[in-house]
Design brief:
- The protein has 171 residues and is α+β, with helices and mostly antiparallel strands.
- It has a single domain, classed as Gcn5-related N-acetyltransferase (GNAT) (Aminopeptidase).
- Helices cover 35% and strands 34% of the residues.
- It has five helices and seven strands.
- It has a seven-stranded mixed sheet.
- A hairpin with a 2-residue loop joins strand 6 and strand 7.
- Helix 1 packs across helix 3.
- The longest helix is centred in the N-terminal third of the chain and has 15 residues.
């Protein structure tokens, strides 16, 4: 059984472990290996704590907890950060599941709970960005009803530009 609840400061170490292992698993061959190798759980814990405290207003941080009380997923959502959208447009900033559990259905269940929270927050449309070459994540979101809308952007990782495609889904 999976429980979804608001993240607390006590969840930060587990969330950081999921983020770092998630990045290394999902982005190998997409993001420069030097960037992935430079990531540490310890550094991410510090960054996550600062981000969590600074973003409590305006962002929703959720964790997925398994039947044994272990945090197995993390998501963050809020208002869309781009221009030209209405107040009812939300953005899924991040959704990570412990890599060893990918394919178990946890991600699908967790995303459903995230959508329920987004609707409760007043969002009728959700947007998200996925690395263009991350075919596994793109398939996951497409199966959940997200459609690429043609918007693209790029981020820099260790001096390499990595492109992202935007997806949208009506809730």
């Amino acid at each position: 059984m999976l429980t979804v609840r608001a993240m607390t400061d006590a969840d930060v170490p587990a969330v950081s472990e999921i983020r770092v292992t998630g990045w290394r698993a999902a982005y190998a061959g997409i993001v420069p290996q030097s960037f992935l190798d430079g990531m540490t759980v310890e550094a991410d814990i510090q960054q996550r704590r600062r981000h969590f405290e600074a973003s409590k207003e305006g962002m929703t941080h959720l964790v997925a907890v398994d039947a044994h009380g272990r945090v197995v997923g993390w998501a963050c959502l809020g208002r869309f950060r781009g221009d030209g959208t209405s107040a009812v447009t939300g953005e899924l900033y991040a959704l990570y599941v412990q890599p060893s559990l990918i394919g178990s259905g946890i991600g699908r269940t967790f995303l459903g709970a995230v959508h329920a929270h987004a609707r409760a927050d007043g969002f009728g449309l959700m947007l998200l960005w996925v690395l263009t070459d991350n075919t596994r994540s793109r398939r996951f979101y497409e199966r959940a009803g997200y459609i690429a809308d043609g918007a693209v952007q790029a981020d820099d990782y260790a001096g390499v530009s990595v492109s992202e495609v935007r997806y949208r889904r009506t809730l």
